[in-house]
Amino acid sequence: MQVAVCGPRDCTAEDAQHATRIGQLLAEEGATVICGGGTGVMAAVAEGASSAGGIVIGVRPDTDRTRVCDGLTAVLYTAMGEARNSIIVESADAVIVIGGSWGTLSELALANRRGGVPIVSIGGWRIITSDGREVPESTRATSPEDAVSSALTLAIKAAR
C-alpha cells in the first residue's frame, strides 16, 4: 500500500503534529509514504514514518540535494517543479491531505481528477460548488487516527 501525504511546506504547528502522527501510523500499518520530500508537512510525515521504521519516498520538484528533509528512504529528483505533484498522486493508492496551500490544492485537484483514488482531508481546503456540493468528494477526518484508518480502508475497497 502506498499513501501520498500532501500538505504545505509552510504549515501550522497543528498540521505538523498531524503529519508526524499520520506518518507513524502509516508506518505501523506497513504502508509506504510518498511525499514531496521538503519542509513542513513533508518533513513531519517523513519524520513520523521513519521513526516508526517505515519507508518514505520523497518526490522533489528540483535536483537540489541540499533541500531534502530527513527521514526519506529514497528520493526522486524530477526537475519538474510543481508538475511533480502528478507523480505523487498517481503513485498512491490513497491520498491524505493535511492543511492547505496552493501546491496542496493542486495535489487535491489532481487526486480528484484522477478519480478512483481515495482522498482523506484533515484540515485545510474545502471547495464548494455553486450548487453547494463539496468537491472533491473526499472524506473529512477529525484526527490522524481517523485519517489513516479511512485512507487504508477506502484504498482496500478501491483495489477490489
UniProtKB/TrEMBL annotation:
InterPro entries, per the entry: LDcluster4, LOG_family_nucleotidases
Pfam families membership: LDcluster4 (PF18306)
Protein name: Dethiobiotin synthetase
Gene Ontology terms: cellular component: cytosol
Cited SUPFAM superfamilies: MCP/YpsA-like
Chain segments annotated as coiled-coil in the UniProt record: none
